[in-house]
Amino acid sequence: MNATTLILAVLIFAAAVLYSSVGHAGSSGYLTIMALMGVAPAVMKPTALTLNILVAAIATVKFYRAGYFSWSLFLPLAIASIPCSFIGGYLTLPASIYNPITGGALLVAAYKLFRTHHTITATSQAIPLLAALLSGAAIGFLSGVTGIGGGIFLSPLLLLMGWADPRQSAGISAAFILVNSTAGLLGHLSHTTLLPKAIIFWAPSAIIGGFIGAEYGSKHKSANFQRLLSILLVIAGLKLLFSW
């Protein structure tokens, strides 16, 4: 294991802990880390999706067992997002297209995180079916194309629209990320098998970090780290936007 692989493993562990504590799998964090460390764009998407699946599976179980999940909210979102995520995952974009799209997505995610820092409220308003289908489809496609699991967009949407409270949003987002990342990775692997050898070191880091974060987040109020994450996402987004 070289120094870069080790540093990435440590940073992936930290990202998994932080993101899984709020029901996210850490894809935007992994993409940020890889972008800042100069990882090739062709490797970034499948790696982020793979780590997403591992962490999201853990977070889904933890939040589901804690009672923070709603099938009525999840199903319409997932039904529309899964096929769109597969299609997005199938697409392999050149760096000249992937970088600006993913960079822009990270900047939007940073904005969403910063806004929800001040807008977390408890609510139980029902989600309209059409809104759920359209939202799921759009987020699913973006998830597959970029490697971002979608939770970073879904959680703020659920909170800002009053469709879920913070804990329920975390549980739904974890399951949403799991199914979308799986569909996106399957779409990607249907025509290529590009995964770095270092994934054997990064995967355990993500699993351990995801377990710690999800265990804490499903039982306690998570630490408020949105502002810090927003700053990191902005840095990574700008790096990708200006590197193509």
Describe the model.
The chain contains ten helices and no strands. It is mainly α and 244 residues long. It is globular and about 50 Å long. The model has no long low-confidence stretch (mean pLDDT 82).
List strands and helices in order, with pairings:
Elements: H1 3-20, H2 27-36, H3 41-65, H4 71-90, H5 95-116, H6 129-146, H7 151-160, H8 166-189, H9 199-217, H10 226-241
Helix pairs in contact: 1-2, 1-9, 2-3, 2-10, 3-8, 3-9, 4-6, 4-8, 5-7, 5-10, 6-8, 7-8
Task: Label this structure with key terms.
244 residues, mainly alpha
Biggest sheet record: none
> Quick one: overall form?
globular
Quaternary structure annotation: single chain
- Count every beta strand, where a strand is a DSSP E run of 2 or more residues: 0
Rg, Å, rounded: 16 Å
Task: Look at the helices and sheets and give the structural class.
Answer: mainly alpha
Percent range for β-strand residues: under 5%
Brief summary:
This protein is 75% helix and 0% strand. The chain is built from ten helices and no strands.
